[in-house]
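Preliminary data (for renewal application), NAP complex.
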Amino acid sequence: MATAVTVLGTGIMGAGMAKNLAGAGFEVTVWNRSPDKAQALAGAGVTVAPDVTSAVADADIVLTMLFDLEAVVAVMEQALPAVGPGTVWVQSSTVGVDVTATLAELAERHGVFFVDAPVLGTRQPAEQGTLVVLAGCPAALHDTVTPLFDAVGSRTVWVGEQPGDGQRLKLTVNSWVLSLVAATAQAVELAGDLGLDPQLFLDTIAGSPTDCAYAQLKGKTMIAKEFPPAFPLNGAIKDAALIAQAMHTAGTDDRLMHVLQTQFQAAADAGHADEDMAAVLHSFRR
Ligand code: NAP
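Predicted structure:
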């Protein structure tokens, strides 16, 4: 019998992941707070549940892909009493390190196995099944979750055995990603303000040691001033706060991350919160 997977949260990331799970032969049930986004996935091996409790009742694996910790707690406090003992909860939302241990304790109280599994990659990798999964869970669970990870991703990094290990690496990588996007926006804006064609900046670094595919990708959208959301600004603001918090706890200087958070927030305040994080470009205009 096919493994039953319930995906809670079918936003930008969850929708693509649910489709790929169905395509890989899992029996997929989805639930989303705004029903229209879940309904769009109906058919082709995906069943849409009317509420959280019925969504998880027959699940072998529950996958959460929700916006933040608040959403995960709100949804799982409803879901866990309806989940069967021995079910595996794969938590892929980016929520932070320390709170992940608390989520694992919540799972344990309900006899549920917990897997910390944030992902790298935005809308397109989620749709194409080429995410990178950053897993923190006991080795005994690897065989259970590997087929799911293989369906949504092209690679799994087994970071460690503790809940929060996946989040540690996720926040580390996102500290780099947020810095890179803001630095690209700064250079694109500066080039224009200095009277240059900003494309000249991208062309000049192309192929050099300072080049990077992500700078080229995001720089292009900045120059075109087109920001369809792959990773929205509001998510970047949330993650900058999580990273700054993790830095503070770990003893790393967090001043740059606070400046980045301020830049992303300024662009959101100017009306771009739901656009891609490349819209941070707007914060560099005085
Ligand atoms: P999204 O499109 O904004 O979707 C967020 C989901 O969370 C939606 O299903 C939303 O429901 C739900 N939600 C929000 N608050 C809720 C609440 N209080 N109760 C119940 N449901 C709630 O976000 P996303 O881009 O898919 O990201 C999901 C997670 O993956 C986030 O933690 C994000 O940081 C992480 N992530 C994102 C990317 C990316 O590039 N987008 C990449 C890697 C990781 P509604 O539809 O009703 O609003």
